[in-house]
From TrEMBL:
Name of the protein this chain belongs to: Endoribonuclease L-PSP/chorismate mutase-like domain-containing protein
Lineage of origin: Bacteria, Pseudomonadati, Pseudomonadota, Alphaproteobacteria, Rhodobacterales
Source taxon at top rank: Bacteria
CDD domains named among the record's database cross-references: YjgF_YER057c_UK114_like_1 (cd02199)
Every Endoribonuclease L-PSP/chorismate mutase-like domain range: 4-140
Signal peptide interval: none
Matching PANTHER family: ENDORIBONUCLEASE L-PSP_CHORISMATE MUTASE-LIKE DOMAIN-CONTAINING PROTEIN, ENDORIBONUCLEASE-RELATED
UniProt feature coiled coil, ranges: none
SUPFAM superfamilies noted in UniProt: YjgF-like
InterPro entries: Endoribo_LPSP/chorism_mut-like, RutC-like_sf
Length: 152
């Protein structure tokens, strides 16, 4: 089954790849690796803003992280010339969580992205990962995640 078919089974249609917001490129390919720039939590209404430990709970943060994972896949699809089935595996995610100094559940927030990728991609979605706190993120978003992917 194709990746887009599995995503459709989950009720997910990949959006167009978001354009960069500053002086950088959305992805870089080096050999069989694609490095995707940080994707912020965005939905159809725009940036998903909030601060974990303040005005957002872990479930809301995990939902924001899932949105980041969907944007990562959209960028990967663009990097693959529209053929996301070239994906071999997710190698690594680095997740940044806009959170208060005493908030310590960053891994649970980034699980929103990790769980989604494993659900959508099976074993190819398993990856190494970092989940860190940030005092603030661009546009006040709750989560930003960057990723490294292996492609054929």
């Amino acid at each position: 089954m194709s990746i887009e078919s599995r995503l459709a089974d989950l009720g997910v249609t990949l959006p167009g790849a978001p354009a960069p917001a500053a002086n950088y490129v959305p992805f870089v390919q080096s050999g069989s690796l694609v490095y995707v720039s940080g994707q912020i939590s965005m939905d159809a209404n725009g940036p998903v803003k909030g601060r974990l430990g303040d005005d957002m709970d872990v479930a809301d943060g995990a939902a924001a992280a899932r949105l980041c994972a969907i944007s990562l896949l959209a960028q990967l699809k663009a990097a693959c010339g529209g053929d996301i089935d070239r994906l071999v595996r997710v190698v690594k995610l680095t997740g940044f969580v806009n959170s208060t100094p005493d908030f310590t559940d960053q891994p649970k927030v980034i699980n929103g992205a990790s769980d989604f990728l494993v659900e959508a991609l099976g074993p190819a979605g398993q990856h190494s990962r970092s989940a860190v706190s940030a005092a603030s993120l661009p546009l006040g978003v709750a989560v930003e995640i960057e990723g490294i992917f292996e492609i054929a």
